[in-house]
Amino acid sequence: MKHIVGNTVQNKCTSVSYKVKKKRKKSEAEYIRVENTHEAIVSKELFMKVQEMIKNKKTMSSPKHDFLFKGLMFCHNCGRKSRVCYRGRKEKIGYIDCTLARGKDKKCKTANYNYNKFEEKTLNAIRDICGVYCDENALKEIYEKCKNNYNDMIDSEKDSLKDVLDKLEKISKKLEKLYRDNLNEIITDEEYHKYSREFIEEKEALKRRQKIIQDKIKLIMKKQESSKNDEEMEKTIKEFLKLEKPSKRILYELIDRVELDEYKNIYIYFNFSELNIINESLNEKYIIKSA
């Protein structure tokens, strides 16, 4: 599909033997990608937007298990959605893990966390944060202390992003030069495959880093803006505090996402800037340390 945006992808297959016509597919890490080799049919922005829509498309099938935090759990390391899997023959127990932590490759390091413990700890932390919001004196003190931190955080992440983008541009130029040198027989095919593979692996690692930084910037910017007015937020908080076990509707109104890292630490991100400020000021709650 990359040819649609003007890119060329080569080295996808290799022959099993010169005696046999069968071909073997290579891993994506071995692909040779060259950007802007021909005129694009659609823009890269439109292509990525459609791919994201396909990725996030939901099916209408009914789930076997409906968890309270389903759709809100994410991996802190790679940013992908986390899922709950059952274990045990007699008494099945749900465990949270990242989709990239499974299989032979295990591209993401994340901890398997008992879902029931996760839900209990996270709900307790949310109650504590909402309780502080209802205390006017505590809220005023915290808000004055933390309100200027966001701009500094965004500037720092933007500097990191610029550094990554500069490195990506340099690698793209090196790959293009390598490709032309191979076409002009300045370097052999063997040399081309060897050096290009190293550049491609470095490029993929930088792209993963780029996505993580961009996601962080989006989250920080979300914290700066409250999507609902104070009256509606107070109503949601009071409704949440009254319930022993809240509904999904209330959680989705309060929470943007909850992340779990490889050390079983929990990170909570709210839909309201006021709650995020309280969250970050209470260090022992912002990162819920594993027992």
- Which segments are poorly predicted (pLDDT under 50) over 5 or more consecutive residues? 58-62
Helix content: 40-55%
Assembly status: single chain
What proportion of the residues form beta strands (DSSP E)?
A: 15-25%
Quote the distance from N terminus to C terminus.
Answer: 47 Å
Q: Give the radius of gyration.
A: 24 Å
Shape verdict: elongated
> DSSP helix count?
9
- Class inferred from helices and paired strands: alpha+beta
Major sheet attributes: 4 strands, mixed
- Order of SSEs: EEEEHEEEEHHHHHHEEHHE
**Care to count the β-strands?**
11
Overall pLDDT: 76
Q: Strand sequence of the main sheet, in spatial order?
A: 5-9-10-11
Polypeptide structure, described:
Helix 2 crosses helix 8 and helix 6 packs across helix 7. It is elongated, with a radius of gyration of 24 Å. The two termini are 47 Å apart. The chain has nine helices and eleven strands. The chain is of the alpha+beta class and 291 residues long. A hairpin with a 5-residue loop joins strand 9 and strand 10. About 2% of the residues have low confidence. The strands form four sheets. It has a four-stranded mixed β-sheet with strand order 5-9-10-11. Strands 6-7-8 form a three-stranded antiparallel β-sheet.
